[in-house]
């Protein structure tokens, strides 16, 4: 999804997954999973992150997100995990006792980029720019 801001246009898409501490089933019904979805959407809105798809499973979260190129993937993850845990425990303090050490999320996560085109197509596009710019004549 192409996103436009005042000084940049970007199309960064990421698949982000993280799990609860010890893969504990915390989001065990629709009410609890929807509550976490609402928390994550509020965090995204406050941080300039676009959530394209989201699913909260009993012990993990899947999201397809996009964020501006001046944000780092690790800062986005830190914001989602840290803020959501604080907001969750404020709303559902009883779940803290289900988690050893009182941590909602495992420290790890998985993130991968999603592309609309392959590396080969981008390489070909870049290599053909000189030819197009020079009126069909290669640079060399």
From TrEMBL:
GO molecular function annotations of the record: DNA binding; transposase activity
Domain Transposase IS200-like positions: 9-129
InterPro entries recorded: Transposase_17, Transposase_17_sf
Gene Ontology BP terms: DNA transposition
Cited Gene3D superfamilies: Transposase IS200-like
SMART domains: Y1_Tnp (SM01321)
Designated name of the protein: IS200/IS605 family transposase
Organism in which the protein naturally occurs: Companilactobacillus farciminis
């Amino acid at each position: 999804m192409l996103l436009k801001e005042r000084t940049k246009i970007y199309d960064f898409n990421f698949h982000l997954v993280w799990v609860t501490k010890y893969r504990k089933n915390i989001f065990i019904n629709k009410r609890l999973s929807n509550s976490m979805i609402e928390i994550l959407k509020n965090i995204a809105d406050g941080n300039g992150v676009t959530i394209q798809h989201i699913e909260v499973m009993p012990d993990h979260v899947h999201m397809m997100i996009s964020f501006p190129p001046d944000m780092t993937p690790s800062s986005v993850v830190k914001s989602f995990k840290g803020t959501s845990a604080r907001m969750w425990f404020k709303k559902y303090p009883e779940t803290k006792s289900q988690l050893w050490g009182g941590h909602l999320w495992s420290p790890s996560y998985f993130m991968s980029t999603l592309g609309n085109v392959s590396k080969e197509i981008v390489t070909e596009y870049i290599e053909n720019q000189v030819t197009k710019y020079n009126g069909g004549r290669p640079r060399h």
